[in-house]
Specification:
This protein has 165 residues and is α+β, with helices and mostly antiparallel strands. The chain has three helices and nine strands.
């Protein structure tokens, strides 16, 4: 633990600025998993979740318009929520070849909730990297608010592709 003893004279003014954190997510994709067609009720549930969250965001933005902070971490940050989750698909050719491994990537969640600036995509095979990036590009998030202003947010994603037999 780091302890800091800070003394400031009575007539000294300092502005301290803290950096916004980041979002981290780890996903496990098994080669044994069977890809099933989308369930229509799941799509309806997602749409209902988006409607509920949209109503929540409207209430938070109304609080901001009235001069109050959003209800979030520390009272001034409204963290993003994933509204649309698309799972990576394990390429059949790589499953057949026994190729597995971990793909890591960095991205930015834009002020509109879209994933932007995928970079530093690293993995054991270009096809695994492409499968991971294709899924993450489709994710959608709610807007991150800092002091009632939309901000971009860094995101680190780790996707473990494994062949469990």
């Amino acid at each position: 633990m780091l302890l800091l003893n800070l003394e400031i004279a009575a007539d000294t003014e300092r502005t301290l600025q803290l950096e916004l954190g980041s979002v981290r997510e780890t996903i496990n994709v098994s080669g044994d998993a069977v890809v099933t067609p989308p369930d229509p009720s799941a799509a309806e549930q997602r749409e209902e979740a988006v409607r509920r969250f949209t109503a929540f965001m409207e209430r938070e933005q109304a609080k901001c318009a009235a001069g109050g902070p959003p209800t979030g971490v520390g009272g001034n940050i409204l963290a993003p929520r994933k509204l649309l989750d698309v799972r990576p698909i394990y390429p059949a050719s790589l499953k057949a070849a026994g190729i597995a491994g971990t793909v890591t990537l960095d991205a930015v969640i834009g002020t509109d909730g879209l994933v932007r600036e995928l970079r530093n995509v690293k993995g054991p095979d270009p096809e695994l990297e492409a499968a991971a990036a294709d899924a993450v590009r489709q994710w959608r998030f709610s807007t991150t608010l800092l002091n009632c202003e939309p901000v971009e947010l860094e995101m680190q994603v780790t996707i473990n592709f494994s062949l469990e037999r």
